[in-house]
């Protein structure tokens, strides 16, 4: 019995259909196509595979791949990290130098806070002889 079900499906795939394109005003046949479901399926599948292949090739072999998140060359990401570290160290050096210049400017203007001159009282620790 399953053979008959497969046979009817195969018959439906191979049964022929006619696609006619007609002129609406004169009802003349412009183009006629003789098709079956199997050929339409094969043509559409081939077209899909070609379009997917072209899209993948376009992305893989052009600079469009750089727009994909997470994609990039490992060497460039290492270079970005090195440049980021250099920029951070330069920024820290700049901040320290600016603080140094500000301190010198305060000294020259006389805006220095007087040092704390209070003396600390320390307990004398004597060595005890046992």
How many H/I helices? 3
| Mean pLDDT figure | 85
Give the topology string: H per helix, E per strand. HEEHH
Q: Strand sequence of the main sheet, in spatial order?
A: 1-2
Taken as a percent bin, the fraction of beta residues is 5-15%
Q: What integer value in Å does the Rg equal?
A: 43 Å
Class from helix and strand fractions:
mainly alpha
Question: How would you describe the overall organization of this protein?
Answer:
The chain has 130 residues and is mostly helical. The chain has 2 domains: 1-71, no CATH class; 73-110. The chain is 56% helix and 12% strand. The protein contains 3 helices and 2 strands. It has helices spanning 2-14, 37-60, 74-109, and strands spanning 16-22, 29-36. Strands 1-2 form a two-stranded antiparallel ribbon. A hairpin with a 6-residue loop joins strand 1 (16-22) and strand 2. The N and C termini lie far apart (113 Å). The model has no long low-confidence stretch (mean pLDDT 85).
Short description:
The protein is built from three helices and two strands. The chain has 130 residues and is mainly alpha-helical. The chain folds into two domains: 1-71, no CATH class; 73-110.
């Amino acid at each position: 019995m399953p053979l008959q079900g497969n046979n009817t499906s195969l018959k439906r795939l191979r049964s022929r259909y006619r696609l006619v394109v007609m002129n609406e005003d004169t009802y003349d046949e412009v183009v006629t196509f003789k098709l079956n479901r199997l050929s339409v399926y094969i043509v559409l599948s081939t077209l899909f595979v070609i379009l997917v292949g072209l899209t993948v090739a376009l992305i893989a072999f052009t600079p469009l791949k750089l727009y994909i998140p997470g994609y990039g060359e490992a060497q460039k990401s290492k270079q970005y990290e090195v440049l980021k570290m250099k920029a951070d160290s330069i920024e820290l050096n700049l901040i320290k130098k600016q603080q140094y210049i500000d301190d010198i400017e305060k000294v020259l203007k006389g805006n220095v806070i007087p040092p704390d001159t209070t003396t600390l009282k320390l307990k004398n620790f004597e060595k005890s002889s046992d």
